Backbone:
């Protein structure tokens, strides 16, 4: 079973998250990747995330741009660690996504890495798995 569930909100985000695949693979960490939007497919996303622990996942990485609700949405549905990756998209070049990912409400923990810093997200997931 994969250890890390990786989610992005749009098919166009896949090239942005792919460097994380390499980092995880080189470390021998298994992962599963899905495109599932908190806005456009909330039911599908909720099903993926709420069932993640039962599927054997131990960490969730969620990457999104613009309003970037995906990481917070995921964290509200699971007790697994969630790592949010804001993507540099739109007129604010990722600042909006960074703020949305980092400023989730109290009680909905999301570890947030820098804008487009998918390698750090993967490295953090590896550290969590080793802890």
Residues:
């Amino acid at each position: 079973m994969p250890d890390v569930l990786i989610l992005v909100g749009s098919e166009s985000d896949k090239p942005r998250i792919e460097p994380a695949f390499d980092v995880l693979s080189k470390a021998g960490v298994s992962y599963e990747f899905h495109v599932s939007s908190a806005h456009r497919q909330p039911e599908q996303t909720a099903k993926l995330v709420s069932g993640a622990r039962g599927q054997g996942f131990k960490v969730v990485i969620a990457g999104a741009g613009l309003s970037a609700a995906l990481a917070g949405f995921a964290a509200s549905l699971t007790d697994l660690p969630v790592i949010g990756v804001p993507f540099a998209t739109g007129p604010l070049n990722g600042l909006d996504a960074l703020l949305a990912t980092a400023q989730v409400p109290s009680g909905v923990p999301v570890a947030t890495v820098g804008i487009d810093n998918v390698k750090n997200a993967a490295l953090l997931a590896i550290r969590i798995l080793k802890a």
Observations:
- The mean pLDDT is 97.
